[in-house]
């Protein structure tokens, strides 16, 4: 924030329950209402195993945010924390990738909201579940309402998050617990436990990942959280665990409670479950009231998640603009409402453009998943780097085994990107690399900084190349005239991708900490001042070696 006392500052109005609601609301959106069908259609009953494995991956990826958010409670955490560890250029590229995810993911959520609303209102979607112009107009109207709500004040946005989070959790819990009564153990063996093999389990994890994105939500509005050192890690952990339990319960009831004949399917036809929603399963149980509640729950869930992500997405360009790494006008705080109003409006405008250009869910969701996995991987790397370069920064929550979990998380994120399938493994990295020329609008790149972040360019390009060389099984809706050639068959591809991810992690780590030594300052303290006795709220933005500017 600006040091000028006349400049409006963000208000700390978010408490533990409000922040937990933002985390839960940010994760539970559109994905859960199609998650179980996705798991079943590509993995069969083994989709339960895919879900449990995915929950483990999500926890590994989320835990670094609990430590980093408490130690560095600054707005725009998925950008501002990597910038602190990797420098201006690296932080910008990671932040740009996350911003891509934020506004495209918001468009995807609003898209699904309008689709479910179309259950009650005719003319919003086509038979192929693509929004009509009427549906797009309805989506844009709700987007405008979300934006105005969050411009007026963060307390209104968090209040909306708390109400809608409660409203969407209740139907999911009802479905999960009622479904336990209808469980049939035979469903877990009919057609084979893993009818599509273990590659199907891997594919199920990648397709379902979008349903779990948002666990980093707590660190985005950090400067608006009361007692962030205590509240941030608690809200992150409680939010993620809550969602994991709900998702596991819903998936178990969906797969175990399947009534084949009632849903017009041949027993064991798991591929045919792709079009089923939770309300269809409830109808198969002979519970039309529960089916109606599930449709209403889906509408409320996507309605709430859309509002949550409009609140969050504007904080990324706001934080980047504060560091002079984005359009300066986006760093302004509204003089009356004390919110990043200009950044909120800018982000929502891009969401609106995405909604108009891509009025269908799957493609947008895949792009969003890939562009957010890179920041998730960077969070683990940042944790290891900042522990080395800033050992005296207070860490109210210190992640046990963090130095081991950080590279594991990086490798797991790398594997999930590979599994996300061609051609999206080409499109996603390419969109992030668009940030390279964009960066030159705001800052020059020195040779030292270019060397420091060279690993990220190799990482993004390497992922696309490995996907092209890899197993053709990992292809989804390929619109390009070429696809994976199968030079790397499974399990060789998994081994190569894991080794590649670990090698990039080591390269990125030593590039980051080596810059401090190269700058003439001895490790472990680097060039960053001791903030252990500084304010308890947030360490100030600090100069980054190898940069010609970029700090407020």
Textual characterization of the structure:
This protein is mostly helical. It has a domain at 16-371: Up-down Bundle (Amino acid/polyamine transporter I). Helix content is 63%, strand content 0%. It has 19 helices and no strands. It has helices at residues 16-27, 32-43, 47-71, 77-117, 133-152, 154-181, 197-208, 228-256, 278-284, 288-313, 315-322, 341-357, 361-389, 402-419, 424-433, 435-439, 447-452, 454-469, 492-518. Helix 13 packs antiparallel against helix 14 and helix 15 (424-433) runs antiparallel to helix 18.
Named at the architecture level, the CATH assignment of the domain at 16-371 is Up-down Bundle
Oligomer: single chain
CATH topology of the domain at 16-371: the name is Amino acid/polyamine transporter I
Mean pLDDT: 81
The CATH class of the domain at 16-371: Mainly Alpha
Structural class: mainly alpha
Helix content: 55-70%
SSE string, helices as H and strands as E? HHHHHHHHHHHHHHHHHHH
What is the end-to-end distance? 8 Å
Q: How many strands appear in the DSSP assignment?
A: 0
Instruction: Choose one word for the global shape.
Output: globular
Low-confidence stretches: 1-7, 517-552
Supply the CATH superfamily name of the domain at 16-371: Amino acid/polyamine transporter I
For the sheet with most strands, the description reads: none
Quickly count the helices. Answer: 19
Radius of gyration: 23 Å
SS strand fraction: under 5%
Short summary of the structure?
With 552 residues, the protein is mainly alpha-helical. The protein has a domain of 356 residues: Amino acid/polyamine transporter I.
């Amino acid at each position: 924030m600006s040091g000028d006392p006349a400049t409006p500052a963000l208000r700390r109005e978010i408490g533990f329950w409000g922040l937990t609601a933002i985390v839960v609301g940010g994760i539970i959106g559109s994905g859960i209402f199609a998650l179980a069908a996705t798991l079943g259609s590509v993995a069969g009953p083994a989709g339960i195993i895919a879900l449990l494995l995915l929950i483990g991956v999500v926890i590994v990826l989320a835990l670094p945010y609990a430590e980093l958010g408490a130690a560095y409670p600054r707005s725009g955490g998925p950008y501002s924390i990597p910038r602190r560890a990797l420098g201006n250029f690296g932080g910008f590229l990671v932040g740009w990738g996350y911003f891509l995810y934020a506004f495209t993911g918001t468009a995807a959520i609003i898209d699904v909201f309008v689709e479910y609303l179309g259950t009650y209102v005719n003319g919003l979607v086509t038979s192929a579940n693509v929004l009509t112009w009427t549906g797009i107009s309805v989506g844009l109207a709700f987007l405008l309402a979300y934006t105005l709500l969050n411009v007026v004040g963060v307390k209104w946005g968090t209040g909306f998050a708390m109400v809608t989070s409660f409203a969407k959790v209740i139907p999911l819990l009802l479905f999960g617990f009622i479904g336990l009564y209808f469980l049939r153990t035979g469903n877990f063996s009919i057609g084979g436990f893993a009818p599509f093999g273990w590659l199907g389990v891997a594919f199920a994890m990648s397709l379902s990942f979008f349903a779990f994105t948002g666990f980093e939500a707590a660190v985005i509005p950090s400067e608006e959280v009361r007692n962030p050192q205590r509240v941030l890690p608690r809200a992150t952990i409680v939010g993620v665990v809550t969602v994991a339990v709900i998702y596991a319960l819903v998936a178990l009831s969906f797969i175990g409670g399947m009534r084949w004949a009632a849903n017009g399917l041949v027993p064991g036809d798991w591929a045919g479950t792709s079009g089923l929603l939770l309300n269809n399963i409830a109808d198969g149980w002979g519970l039309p009231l529960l089916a109606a509640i599930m449709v209403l729950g889906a509408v409320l869930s996507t309605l709430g998640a859309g509002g949550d992500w409009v609140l969050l997405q504007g904080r990324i360009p706001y934080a980047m603009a504060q560091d002079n790494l984005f359009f300066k006008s986006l760093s302004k705080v509204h003089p009356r409402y004390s919110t990043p109003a200009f950044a909120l409006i800018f982000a929502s405008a891009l969401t609106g453009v995405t909604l108009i250009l891509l009025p269908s869910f799957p493609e947008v969701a895949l792009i969003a998943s890939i562009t957010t996995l890179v920041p998730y991987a960077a969070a683990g790397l940042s944790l290891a780097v900042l522990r080395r370069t800033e050992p005296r920064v207070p860490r109210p929550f210190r992640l046990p085994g963090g130095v081991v979990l950080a590279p594991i998380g990086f490798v797991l994120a790398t594997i999930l990107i590979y599994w996300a399938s061609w051609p999206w493994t080409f499109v996603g990295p390419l969109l992030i690399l668009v940030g390279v020329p964009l960066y030159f609008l705001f800052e020059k790149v020195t040779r030292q900084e270019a060397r420091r972040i060279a690993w990220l360019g190799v990482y993004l390009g390497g992922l696309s190349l490995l996907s092209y060389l890899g197993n053709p099984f990992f292809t989804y809706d390929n619109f390009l005239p070429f696809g994976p050639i199968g030079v790397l068959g499974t399990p060789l591809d998994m081994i190569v991708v894991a080794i590649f991810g670990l090698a990039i992690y080591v390269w990125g780590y030593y590039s980051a900490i080596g810059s401090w030594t190269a700058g003439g300052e001895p490790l472990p303290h680097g060039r960053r001042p001791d903030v252990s006795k500084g304010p308890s709220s947030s360490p100030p933005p600090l100069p980054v070696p190898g940069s010609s500017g970029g700090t407020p």
